[in-house]
Every structure is written in C-alpha cells, then in structure tokens.
Amino acid sequence: MFTILQVSDAHLSPRNGLFRGNLARLRAWAEAARPDLVIASGDLSLDGADREEDLALAVDTLRGFPAPLLAIPGNHDVGSHARTMPAQPVDAARLARFRRIAGPDWWMRDVPGWRIIGLDTEIMGTAIADEAAQAGFIAEAAATERRIALFLHKPVFVTEPEDPAFDYWSVPPHARAALAPVLEHPGLRQVASGHLHLHHRFQRGAVHYAWAPPASFIVDPHLQEGLPGDRCVGALVHRLLEDRVETELVSPGGMEQPWLETIRAETYPT
Fold it and tell me: How far apart are CA 77 and CA 92, in angstroms?
C-alpha cells in the first residue's frame, strides 16, 4: 500500500499569519501517520502569481512535512486563463517562477503497481506553448499498464463531463479533449482535485473522484450555487491498494474554519 497526503488550497503568505495553525496541525498528523508522499494540489500561496515571497513561504512550509513533496500550481500560484483571471493571465514568467521554486508543474511518479500523474490545469485551454507540451506529456504518461491516480488543481468538471459551460470552477470545456488519453485509460482509478474549497467524493465506473477540502478557508454558498460538497477544512489521505484507492478526510482537532468574508481584508481585499 502506498499512501498520499493531499493538501490543497493552503493560501499562505508572509503578509499575514492566517492558516499557519491548520498547516501545523496537518503536519503533526503526518508526523504520526507517515505518508509516503505529500501532493500539494494547487493554490499553495495566497498570491504567488505576482509575489515570489508568497510562493516561497508556501513551498518551504509544505516541504517541512515528513514526506517528499510534489506540487501542481493553482490559479493563485501562476494565474490562469485570461477569460477567468484577466488581471493575472498565466504566462511564461509566472510558470518559470513556479518551476524554480516548487518544481515541475506537471509530472509523473511510478510506485509499485501505480502511476501517479500531476497536471497543470491553469494552462489548459490557453493556447500557450506550454499547453501543447503538456498535451504531449499526457499521451506519454498514459502509455502504461499500471493503475493511474491523477491529481489536478481544478476538477475536470463540476456537473457532467460534457457540460459546455466555461466558468471559474473547472477545466475549460474545449481543453478537456487533451485529457482523453488518461481519462479514458482502463487503469484510471482516481481523479483528485482541489480549488473548490469543498469536500466531495463520487464514483463514475471504476474511477473515484475526490475534491479535497481547503487547508485555509471556506466560501459562502451563494458564491458557489449548484456546487455539491461539504464546507470543511482539512486534507485527504489516499491509500493506493491493488485495484482501487481508499480516500479519507483528515481534519485534526483544533483546525480553524474561517469564512472568506471574515478574512477578506487580510486575503483578497476588494
């Protein structure tokens, strides 16, 4: 059995002391449980897209966990599609900063019986050169007979895979075709994501979908109308078994659960 601790949406910044206690409690849990790998599934930082110090603090904090760290970027780390984040479109400079501080923004790692794949959802649908490069990587990574566990920041979809809506919450519909080699792979067993600040799990055929809760704050329901899931803070632990993934919510005692509106002045002032 191989165990992964997925920590998502930590939103750390040296400009405030928010969410540090939650990360400390998750680290204490990891010290006792000893996962084999930590995956940070995006939005490590509050504003790494524009502030190097935010991303550096987040990576340094997560590397303090007692397991190797693999990270994928979120929109707050590198920006995103210009349609959803016009003030911070993902670009070569932002991607280079992430890669220098956190490591590759897409990657794969083989462990006994499994291939773990991490992808950068923020370049999907943008038509920048990195998107085509990642598409080639996806085809290469899918060339395996192993079981596959896929990690993303944004979920592939929030309603149905064929939903044509282009919104802030999921991979752009026109970009999903590039994911076909892995999403249609017979060995795919897990698709785990973050971004939504909601904890939700469901099954489609042999594939288990998991939305990781945030390690930081929760969002008022009126801002996420129609999205299912529980509003809680924590992380997920994934246990890769022979032919399936067992997923469990990790929310140690004492975790703070602030609403975004109560901390907006310290995070994303209007």
Answer: 13
CA of 20: how far to CAs of 25, 43, 51, 62, 68, in Å? 9, 15, 18, 11, 20
Among 198, 201, 236, residue whose Cα is nearest residue 220: 198
Q: Give the mean pLDDT of 158-184.
A: 93
The Cα angle at residue 125 between residues 123 and 127, in degrees rounded to 5:
80
Residue 244 makes CB contacts below 8 A (sequence gap 6+) with: 189, 206, 208
pLDDT at residue 109 is higher than 70: yes
For residue 227, count other CB atoms closer than 10 A to its CB. Answer: 18
Q: Are 16 and 53 in contact (CB under 8 A)?
A: no
What is the architecture of the domain spanning 2-266?
4-Layer Sandwich (3.60)
Q: Which pLDDT tens digit goes with each residue over 190-243?
A: 999 999 999 999 999 999 999 999 999 999 999 998 899 999 999 999 999 999
Nearest in space to 15 (alpha carbons), one of 49, 60, 45: 45
Ranges of each domain in the chain: 2-266
Q: What is the pLDDT of residue 269?
A: 67
What whole-number distance in Å separates Cα of residue 193 and Cα of residue 42? 9
Strand partners, 148: 115, 188
